[in-house]
Amino acid sequence: MVTPARLSPFAAAGWWALDYLDAAKQQLRVLTVPKTPKRWAIGDAGKPTILLLPGVYEHWSFMAPLGDALNTHGYRVQVAHGLGANLLAIPETAERVWRALARIPTPPEGRVVVAHSKGGLIGKRLLVRDVDHRLDLRGLVAIATPFRGARLARYLLDPSMREFDPDSATIVELSSVASVNSRIVSIFGVFDPHLPEGSSLAGATNRLLPVAGHFRILSAPETASAVIAGVESLSAPPEAVAEAAAEVVAAAAESEAEAEAEAEAEAEAEATIAQTSSKGRA
């Protein structure tokens, strides 16, 4: 399991300050980017449409740099309006997003969710519900998402933050569902002041970037490159992604079986040599 680095208290405090300074700047972006850019509606019809989901206390504009980067690479980009600062419970928010997506035509090449923090948990819940591929959700690219929860949330009074407690019903429920993990790309930095547990997810594609911060990671060029690569890897239909994952699992099992067979053969050879040596001494 990949986890962020441990820093000295002084270094961690410095990154905390820089991270919140960046968050404050991104909060101001809502004033300069009040509406989604019209160009985001234009893209390559042969590529999936991107749905951006921000984290808690975040407006969709937090993810505007990633939206621009994806659109530049030919992807049409959508946002879920009406979420406000994303303070509602994860199940309720996922339900709202589901209903909103169900009301509009499904893009020919499906959708890929690109999400930050809490948005990644909402995205995973959407994947779990889309078992019949009604919304044709190809996968999820999650950035700094607390898939295993965040123990720091236990000490907070805000209900919207307490939801990230590792023992909360939502985290426990989502953690117990691994069937969609192969369709998730989890991206995180070397240090996240909010998630000491890290964002690594078993069964998913985990990408550790040389970036620090829970918010600063959103505007890092390394993140944009990793997100685009993640979206490209998930662009195939769910059936094809599942088939590819099954092939990887089968190949790993075959490799493990071969290794066990070789180990047994070596053990038998060593036993034969030991018996021969014993007879020679006799």
From TrEMBL:
Composition bias type Acidic residues, residue spans: 255-269
Annotated region (Disordered), positions in chain: 253-282
Stored InterPro entries: AB_hydrolase_fold
Segments of skewed composition (Polar residues): 273-282
Span of the signal peptide: none
Protein name: Alpha/beta hydrolase
